[in-house]
Amino acid sequence: MVTQVPQVGAGAESGGGSQRTEGGQMRCCWLVVAMQLLLVSEVLAQEKAEEAPVLDGREGRQLLLENFRPQSMLKVPATKLAGAKYPAIDIHSHFRIRLRHSAEQLEAFVQVMDRQRIAVCVSLDGQLGENIDEHVKYLLTKYPDRFAMFANLDWQGTGKVDQPATWDCNRPDFARRMAGQLADAKTRGCCGLKIFKSFGLEYKNADGSLVKIDDPRFDPIWQACGELGFPVIIHVADPAAFFLPIDEKNERWEELHRRPEWSFYGPQFPPREELLAAFHRVVGRHPQTKFIGAHLDGDAENLQAVARALDEHPNLYVELASRIAELGRQPYSARKFLVKYQDRVLLGTDGPWPEERLKLYWRFLETEDEYFPYSEKEFPPQGLWQIYGVYLPDEVLRKIYFENALKLLPSVQARYARAAAAFK
């Protein structure tokens, strides 16, 4: 191969240019050689990758966890349910976050609600002020009896992300103003308040430290919710595995490997137990306010602890959203818990989800089926296990599906009655 090398240093530099030209030629030759070596190395790397065995577990090859698709050999009865046994109220859904105000997606999901006998969904994305009006228009214009909504607080306001001292929550009048905003939210159609898990894990004080869930600065907000009849649903912490090292002992390793931002392990985060204890202190300080511990009070792996919290705080309720994976792998304990606390448990799904996911909720609650998926996804998204049904009695199902929610949300009673009547 002959390489044409440009004559660097010729022309205006010709008076002594011979020496400069030879140096330029040498530099260019080395550059060409380096480029050729790089090309060869890339080709060799590509050939090596093509020759490397696919780690699919076949013919004695190793298996990557992400390629693991076990097919159960169990032959056990499988119950097919068309929808929930009783017209349901889903207390935990996200129609702004998941559907982004798409009219087409909303219409499609209402059809899913009809087929699955979900009478009313509570959207936890109402926000505040005019944003509530926007959400009301989206949900209720065409379907006035099928939705309700909770408000949300704006902790940052117009403050700068990297300057927590400028955040609205660090102004001395924040709680008083938010209490007023919640009263306004009620007139706009909201019937509760949703607090996201960033409260305790991300929101910061003026000095950069994390806001504590039981900070007394925010007591006027919880008090106002009690006066307004607003239940407060709070997502506290996350699964226990999310607060542990992402190592070979972590039962949610695969999930955290895909989503490392979900990990709360490290000194920059408070211990999970501290977050839960702080939330329960708030519940105890405000006995006139109804609180809902989202996702089984954030502690579905430890039903004994959830039971203690419910025993200690009669104003505390829990809901099931995105936790049938945890409950369904401990079916004996889960059934005992759900029967004992049947007056304090609400249905939640964390949707809108595909229809197959909703069917698995009914199957978990209503049947005694064994070893079935908790998700419609081929690869389990939350843990590498399957679940068992807890076959709850009808009176318990009625309470979880709708009766408990109607007690907490009296403003929903009329629309629920109209929507449920259409299923008969």
From TrEMBL:
Organism in which the protein naturally occurs: Anatilimnocola aggregata
GO BP terms in the entry: secondary metabolic process
Highest taxon listed in the record's lineage: Bacteria
Ranges annotated as spanning the membrane: none
Domain Amidohydrolase-related: 89-410
Cellular component, GO annotation: cytoplasm
Protein name as it appears in the record: Amidohydrolase
Stretches the record annotates as Disordered: 1-23
Keyword annotations from UniProtKB, A to Z: Hydrolase, Lyase
Lineage summary: Bacteria, Pseudomonadati, Planctomycetota, Planctomycetia, Pirellulales
Molecular function per GO: carboxy-lyase activity; hydrolase activity
